[in-house]
Specification:
The chain is of the alpha+beta class. The chain contains six helices and seven strands; from the N terminus they run E-H-H-H-H-E-E-E-H-E-H-E-E. Helix 1 crosses helix 3.
Length: 153
């Protein structure tokens, strides 16, 4: 017999900061280090304490929602009609958490667009499965030679 999974997508609080930072740091290292090839950023600048401090600012924390089923397993950062960030803990990827977060953003916040790293093909395919499509808009990720591409729905 299958049990119903109980979870909530709720506004992040200060108590969530260390978990949010942990998710961001680990996933960014795993997913983006191979693209950017910048160990100084990945292991010196990208640190849990500094990320938690940055995300504690009310203008950031006030725009973050977390997926919580007893463990915070993912987060989405929404500003206006834009998904700024969507991250799911590496250990819980592939369990529909990201899909639930993006559907929440579409349904509850009417998000319309996002930017994704052009070489993040898995991310692009994920967003396409959730109703977004690539546009011809692109710009450099700040301080890098890698492009971000805009996706809209």
């Amino acid at each position: 017999m299958k049990t119903m999974e109980k979870y909530v997508i709720r506004k992040a609080t200060e108590k969530d900061l260390s978990r949010i930072a942990e998710i961001l740091v680990f996933v960014k290292r795993v997913k983006f280090r191979p693209i950017f090839k910048d160990d100084d950023y990945s292991f010196n600048e990208l640190q849990v304490i500094s990320v938690a401090k940055e995300y504690s600012k009310p203008e950031i924390l006030g725009n973050i929602w977390v997926y919580d089923d007893g463990i915070v397993k993912g987060m989405i950062h929404i500003e206006g009609k834009e998904i700024k960030e969507l991250y799911v803990d590496y250990f819980f990827q592939g369990k529909k958490i990201g899909g639930r977060l993006i559907e929440f953003a579409k349904n509850e916040h009417d998000v319309r667009f996002l930017w994704v790293i052009e070489k993040n093909l898995n991310g692009i395919r994920f967003y396409e499965r959730h109703g977004f499509h690539l546009t011809d808009k692109k710009e450099f990720e700040e301080g890098t030679t890698e492009y971000l591409v805009m996706m809209e729905r």
